[in-house]
Design brief:
aromatic amino acid biosynthesis; DHquinase_II; alpha/beta; Rossmann fold; 18% strand; DHquinase_II_sf; binds ligand CA2; 5 helices
Length: 147
């Protein structure tokens, strides 16, 4: 059974508690439940993590190497700033999907730049919490067509 790490960056622990007009009312615990249920349905093992610390996110990405099959990453604001996360994905040699709840391209200019997209298989944004299960399907389909 393939295994995915679904990794969430800074401030996403606040999901569902503030700015519902931008990020919705679903909490990160709800999202985790949705991902685990979807993993059971499609036959994928799910590891789900969140950290507010760049180094901890890098460690989590390194930890996938040779152990898991896909990375789904909502790096939050680090998406737009972090060369270190980009390098971590390259060094882990794991296919990655960049994920955002909001449509970052319809928002401020500074959210249009992504370091993660350069090393990602693809990007999913703008579908709210549903984007997480869409990303799981997309990763599974990517792994199947790559075989
Ligand atoms: O849309 C996304 O998923 C983002 O990754 C969210 C980041 C933002 O910096 C990115 O540009 C797009 C912000 C995460 C903050 O999450 C909060 C959730 C609820 C309340 C407050 C912050």
């Amino acid at each position: 059974m393939p295994g995915f790490l679904i990794l969430n960056g800074p401030n996403l622990n606040l999901l569902g508690t503030r700015q519902p007009e931008v990020y919705g009312r679903t909490t990160l615990a709800d999202v985790e439940g949705m991902c685990r249920a979807h993993g059971e349905k499609i036959g994928v093992g799910v590891e789900f993590e969140q950290s507010n610390h760049e180094g901890a996110l890098i460690d989590a990405i390194h930890g996938t190497r040779g152990r898991l099959d896909g990375l789904i990453l909502n790096a939050g604001a680090y998406t737009h700033t972090s060369l270190a996360l980009m390098d971590a994905i390259s060094s882990a040699e794991i296919p990655a999907i960049e994920l955002h709840l909001s449509n970052v391209h319809a928002r401020e200019e500074f959210r249009h730049k992504s370091y993660i997209a350069r090393v990602a298989v693809g990007v999913i944004c703008g579908f709210g919490a549903r984007g997480y299960t869409l990303a799981m399907d997309a990763m599974l389909s990517h792994l199947e067509t790559r075989k």
